[in-house]
Design brief:
Elements: H1 9-16, E1 21-30, E2 37-47, E3 52-56, H2 63-70, E4 78-83, E5 86-92, H3 93-106, H4 111-159, H5 163-181, E6 189-192, H6 206-216, H7 222-235, H8 252-264, E7 270-274, H9 282-299, E8 302-307, H10 310-316, E9 319-324, E10 327-333, H11 334-339, H12 344-351, H13 358-363, H14 371-374, E11 383-388, E12 391-395, H15 397-409
Parallel strand pairs: 3-8, 3-9, 6-7, 7-8
Antiparallel strand pairs: 1-2, 1-4, 4-5, 9-10, 10-12, 11-12
Helix pairs in contact: 3-4, 4-5, 6-7, 6-8, 7-8
Length: 410
């Protein structure tokens, strides 16, 4: 959209007060109840507007599943995801399990306890109702609010516009209204996939691939589509002549740039980059990272950067969350995490980073992590605690005291 139709400074300031994305107790289980695999188990974090949030961990720890659940490629088992203050993901399993447990307890409880249980069950049933409502109606409520905002911006812009400008603004306004009708709030979140070969349709030209999102939203103006496609190609470092070619005619780095162009043409506010450089040559990785960095600055993007290369994540991310076996075990700023790693798994990951120095490599001590011997969870269930402001570690209260004591010594 043009400068005249952008949001006001007051609205932008109010949006910055709350996180752009907030994940609360997110769980994603696969399989039948009782025999399910817990790919993501009780993960909570938030991402501020304009921030790059790194999510790291070994293969199979649940990083990609977390990203795919946020963007609703998977239906969450339980937990909530709030985007721009609206709940876009709402799982109900945790509420249902608690209701089932309370009903079993109720049969043998006294009258006073039964009243407490009945009140709690009513609360949980209301939470389930709200979750189902948000799943069904969050998008239409968002569209309604966006239409009101667009109408107000258009009226304000037209007041001070010349006759020629009014004609252009009116055309833009009607196109934006048509796109909004076919939009979804979740489309303000776009994804860059790990494999640039598998994520691009080999039977479509680059122009068709990049423009597909606009066509789905009902854009039919061929001139506008061409302009946007050529603009996105130039933005990611390609040229307009590439639009008529097919994916197999490009290198891996160029294909990933096409995938990035496909994402940013939708004007997203959040991008989930799922290991976007792991399939690329080392010489190309820095170029893609620098491109994403430039897009953050020029387009004001917020990025959830999923990777297992801690060196890259430290360079690119403002904050880092470390995942292990479906759980978020540590969360801190990049500098803080590397300066004061507390959780044994984080320390193990950092000890595995090779350095381009033969002397330091010769003396590097590899820390091995074994959850069976490094933790004692038989008496207390671990939780995520704030060790110092902004630094969270998963463990028991006893472990938390040990971490605090070690933190003071380091």
């Amino acid at each position: 959209m043009s400068e005249e139709l952008k949001t006001t400074a007051a609205m932008q300031a109010s949006e910055k007060e709350e996180p752009l994305l907030r994940v609360e107790h997110l769980c994603m289980y696969f399989g039948k109840r009782g025999r399910e695999k817990k790919a993501v188990d009780d993960v909570s974090f938030d991402i501020k507007r304009g921030e790059v949030f790194g999510l790291v961990g070994e293969s199979g720890c649940g990083k990609t599943t977390t990203g795919r659940t946020i963007i609703k490629l998977y239906e969450a088992t339980s937990g909530s995801v709030y985007f721009k203050g609206r709940r876009i993901v709402a799982g109900t399993r945790a509420y249902e399990d608690e209701i089932r447990a309370l009903k079993k307890e109720r049969s043998g409880a006294d009258a006073g306890r039964q009243q407490e249980i009945d009140a709690r069950i009513a609360e949980l049933q209301e939470e389930i109702r709200k979750a189902k409502h948000d799943r069904k109606h969050a998008n239409e409520e968002w569209i309604r609010d966006e239409e009101k905002r667009l109408d107000e911006e258009y009226r304000e812009a037209v007041k001070a516009a010349s006759p020629e400008e009014k004609q252009r603004l009116t055309k833009e306004y009607h196109r934006s209204r048509r796109q909004l009708k076919k939009s979804k709030l979740v489309t303000r979140i776009q994804m860059i996939y790990q494999d640039p070969v598998a994520s691009l349709d080999p039977r479509m030209t680059v122009k068709e691939i990049i423009a597909e999102g606009l066509r789905i939203q009902g854009v039919k103006d061929k001139q506008y589509i061409d302009e946007q496609v050529f603009k996105m190609l130039e933005t990611v470092g390609l040229v307009s002549e590439h639009a008529a070619r097919y994916p197999h005619e490009f290198s891996g780095g160029q294909r990933q740039r096409i995938g990035i162009a496909r994402s940013i043409i939708m004007r997203p506010e959040l991008i989930i980059a799922d290991e976007p450089i792991s399939a690329l040559d080392v010489s190309i990785r820095a170029q893609v990272i620098n491109l994403l960095n430039e897009l953050c600055q020029t387009m004001g993007l917020t990025i959830l950067f999923i990777a297992h290369d801690l060196s890259v994540v430290k360079y690119f991310s403002n904050r880092i969350g470390v995942m292990y076996f479906g759980n978020l075990v540590e969360l801190a700023t990049s500098d803080e995490l590397f300066a004061h790693p507390m959780h044994p798994y984080t320390r193990s990951l950092l000890s595995a980073i090779p350095l381009p120095d033969p002397a330091s490599e010769k003396g590097r001590v590899r820390i091995r992590y074994n959850p069976l011997t490094d933790h004692e969870y038989s008496e207390e269930t671990p939780a995520l605690y704030e060790l110092v402001p902004g630094h969270f570690v998963r463990g028991t209260k006893k472990e938390l005291e040990q971490y605090r004591a070690r933190y003071g010594q380091e």
